[in-house]
From TrEMBL, chains A, B:
This is Glycolate oxidase. Keywords: FAD, Flavoprotein, Oxidoreductase. Residues 29-213 form the FAD-binding PCMH-type domain. The gene is dld. It holds the Pfam family FAD_binding_4. It comes from Paractinoplanes durhamensis. The lineage of its organism: Bacteria, Bacillati, Actinomycetota, Actinomycetes, Micromonosporales.
Amino acid sequence: MKELLTGLDVVDDADVLDSLSHDDAEWAPYGKAVAAVRPRTTEDVRRVVAACADRKIPIVPRGAGTGLSGGANAVDGAMILDLSKMNRIVEIDAENMTATAQPGVVNDDLKKAVAEHGLWYPPDPASAPWSTIGGNVATNAGGLCCLKYGVTRDYVLGMEVVVGGPAGDYGTVVRLGRRTTKGVSGYDLAGLFTGSEGTFGVITEITVRLRPARREAPRTVVGAFGSVVAAGEAVAAITRAGLLPAALELLDRTCLRAVEDWKHLGLEADAAALLLAQLDTPGLAGDEEATAVAEVFRAAGAMWAEQSTDEIEAEALFAARRLAYPALERLGPVLTEDICVPRSRVPEMLASIEATAARHGITIATIAHAGDGNLHPLILAPSGDDEARRAAQAAFEDMLTAAIAMGGTVTGEHGVGLLKREGMRQELSAGVLAMQVAVKQTLDPLDLFNPGKVIG
Amino acid sequence: MKELLTGLDVVDDADVLDSLSHDDAEWAPYGKAVAAVRPRTTEDVRRVVAACADRKIPIVPRGAGTGLSGGANAVDGAMILDLSKMNRIVEIDAENMTATAQPGVVNDDLKKAVAEHGLWYPPDPASAPWSTIGGNVATNAGGLCCLKYGVTRDYVLGMEVVVGGPAGDYGTVVRLGRRTTKGVSGYDLAGLFTGSEGTFGVITEITVRLRPARREAPRTVVGAFGSVVAAGEAVAAITRAGLLPAALELLDRTCLRAVEDWKHLGLEADAAALLLAQLDTPGLAGDEEATAVAEVFRAAGAMWAEQSTDEIEAEALFAARRLAYPALERLGPVLTEDICVPRSRVPEMLASIEATAARHGITIATIAHAGDGNLHPLILAPSGDDEARRAAQAAFEDMLTAAIAMGGTVTGEHGVGLLKREGMRQELSAGVLAMQVAVKQTLDPLDLFNPGKVIG
């Protein structure tokens, strides 16, 4: 193997290899990779893919490894393709409001670079300070501002990918999609690759659309609620009132306390749940919307609700939201849910989560992109406690079943990876699953690209 | 055949059948269908698809037939599936801002129905008063407000489709996508079917996301320019200034005169081109944006530019935009282009269109979703004049080549259908074309769904 990768940055140190063999989904199993390689160019990727295909070695691409479904986990005998060194921003085309980047560019780095041109790349997964654009595209990552601005998919115009199968030998480089704002020349393969979790090929370059930067800081409205279900009722009421915040996030008491104990941000940790709304309509209209949101919160039974007039406080609140996951991870292994239900069912789903926790005698902390109906109940289970682990697994499955029963999905934004394969089979019909398998077999007939993920 | 379709609304009158055998692309050839059927339910569609598959009869689905690429044109021996009677709005879920409709619902009818709930379905192809949601989804239709609000694809959450192939026998009914705002459970097949022009199956129900209705009428800014290229420069300058109108449309003198001669709207027809911008940011911020747009127009050399204070006048201008295509059709057969180039290349593409018209000695009228870089040069060629027809065809091909050379695409929103198949082959690499063919063969192994369109 090694002689074929001459001149490439090959990792074979056992500890480094192990750390590159899995993502941040602590509950997902991972296998033993043969090696990892850190390509710098598309040509490097092409060489590795061709060499692996010759030897039928599975290829597992990865970015920063912040995934939460095991989508970047190694299978036995795999070659890990660590794309984090392909971190060059190729072009910022301010005239056309697009940016082209290698997959290893960190989300926040892209945001900062385009901001210098008065532009904005909206997708903002909580992992944005660490996660890469390649990983974001592979998982069709969501985030906080999806409510108003959509998910990664809505920003992907085109990409360069190294594929095999119908396009040619494994190691063929193709460009999918386009650079223009619109385009329907052929099937939307760039869209199909977005969210395919590396199972169709390796993304080596991505062109995204941008928006003009926001001209003023968004307003933040905070509401404190006596129960998470009451907070859920307020979320449903916001939609009913025709209000469209840029973000509408929920943090329950367990999350707030975990962040406060760690970072001492001075957060109100008495409420059962906080709702954080961000309104970015400019000018007076934005002020009116902020007032309306606070009124809806109060009408829905908030203990208090107010617009944060202090920008530092507002930032601390959203920082708390972003830090909730790592703060909980400090307390022990976390099993992360990622269900999404119709917004009107948010209160019911939150009640179901509480009932599930009580039924299994476990702690479930909930953070949520509540305005999207996308909830992240985080199941805490102490290491080494087999019974707690079984209870956690049972709770995990109960919540997937409940979400499906409410017309929801088992994964809103984290992807299927390894953890949601069973849930996906429960959610989709046999016919749709067969279509999925057929598309995978067509585009990757040797099953070399991230095998066992999504399908399998 | 007929006995198998007992109880269905079968059309076999030769004249009606002929009228159902093609769309609005006058230049696209069409074959002789065996019959047309007008299903009312998914079960009707299922029966027809199964019966056709038994006899290897190709199935050509159609809505209102307003397509401009021949995507709904019959092939010889085809069964036409006219879905215009499947025109029921199944559900408007105001709480979750979604609507579910049968494919034959007219775009404007859906808009009106959801408006009664304070909601808005943004996609607005110029054909919106006639074209159907099914056709809009099949072609991933664009429109005027794509610039700020995206295309049909951005609103499709899920769909019911009648398919064959991997999902089961032809006539299998599956649901793709979801009803939630976010979701990544498996490959994005709903996205793949959007824009696939009926070549993977027949859409029988569609769930779209909605937005809250706009709270105030948008502002309209009009600029008159001494040349189309100068208008193009103004379009590029708008993007550079970080302004994001809801729509930014261009009409050249030929279009304006054709509409004026027909409808007598009192349009200014002296300018070489008009730009129409619509700004819908609410409140004072919207007023400021309208002022800024008018200033950019003036700085780019407009003869005059002003905000329309008269709502009736503003509506007349946008009505003129929508009527431009039918107004030109009154003058003779129209060969419609649908190129899309990066916005910075709009002036260059407009100059290239003028040079093409001069070179071939023909008239090309241009309407454009200029802010998107999506241009519709309309080639006028008198019927029965073979030389003019050859010149028109040559000009058509020249413009496709020019658009590709500028980093553009051969179809921004009308679809490949029959007219853009050559252009698509010129635009996409051999590898990507092979992937497209492979996906089609996988999902429709008998090549029964709208054969010869897109691929082929």
